[in-house]
Design brief:
This protein is α/β, with parallel strands linked by helices. It contains three helices and seven strands. The longest helix has 17 residues, at 45-61.
């Protein structure tokens, strides 16, 4: 039962190995663009406020401070949320009786399938170069933003899990040139 209360997020990151993150101290916040026709569960003013608060709080906990202008920033922080429709199929097969061969008349095989449709969310946090707007670091996790569970604690925990990977350690950046790190 104790494990049932644990929340874990599958976090992945990717970054530009040519960027020195050691000098990063100040960031400028950039609101994500509003996309016409976007899923209202993935983009709305309530969620935008919660995510901005969670990201800025997590960055502040790590010693980064917000600045008003892009020119004074070492990096620009923003995010996006993607909701994808998923289908999960569980199939259960069980047997009863003797030889379990359909042609021998003795024994039965039962098969049941459960079909479940759900929305899977991915929260992406992007850190950009303030001058070129090139992506320098990206962290993402699934299950942070749920359509029915929008509690601030869950969002903050998910954002913290992503930003725990920033800045990337130099030893990981060499390993990750071929593929993003996973946690």
């Amino acid at each position: 039962l104790g494990l049932a209360g644990c929340r874990s997020f599958h976090v992945r990151t990717d970054w530009d190995p040519g960027v020195s993150f050691a000098s990063y101290q100040r960031y400028h916040w950039m609101d994500p663009p509003q996309i016409e026709g976007a899923n209202p569960f993935a983009d709305n003013t309530l969620l935008r406020k919660r995510l901005r608060f969670a990201i800025e709080s997590s960055l502040a906990e790590r010693g980064f401070r917000a600045v008003e202008t892009r020119d004074a920033a070492d990096f620009v922080a923003t995010y996006s949320v993607i909701l994808e429709e998923r289908i999960e199929i569980d199939r259960y097969t069980s047997g009863a009786g003797g030889w379990h061969r359909p042609y021998d008349g003795f024994g039965h095989v039962y098969s049941t399938s459960n079909l479940r449709s759900f929305q899977e969310s991915t929260l992406i946090i992007d850190l950009l170069d303030p001058k070129s707007e090139d992506l320098v670091w990206r962290g993402w996790a699934t299950g942070v933003v749920r359509t029915r569970d929008r509690r601030r604690e869950r969002l903050e925990e998910g954002v913290r899990a992503i930003l725990d990977e920033f800045p990337p350690m130099r030893s990981r950046s060499v390993e990750s040139e071929a593929e993003p790190s996973t946690r």
